[in-house]
Amino acid sequence: MRLRRYRPMAVLLLALQLQACHYWEPTFVRPPRVIAEEEPSQVRITRTDGEQVTLQSPWVRADSIVGQDRSEAISDIRQLGTRRFSPGKTVGLLFLGVALGFLIDAAANFEAPGFFGTDVGHNMQEVQRLI
Q: Do 62 and 102 fall within a single domain?
């Protein structure tokens, strides 16, 4: 089946495509306000010591931002980022993926006469004649 050989490439391109659709946008509003107003599904926190932490389903409790598996004190947060959709990156990667698919298909179906065919003996005679 011809389509079966394209399956790994399609999965790879889809995985890359999904990653390019989003990016982390830093916010310049106090973290509790961002979480209360936007209700993001996840946030990336840069702590004052430089460590980056991603919290799933964040909410504010007292003086902390709490995620599913950990919490961070608001005073320890240097920057908060939320995931945003990036149409430019998505279109760019889609274009690159289609172009890459065409190149791979062209390379897979490329047959140069005399190099891979049955004309090897004929080509050797031609080379000897030229020398």
A: no
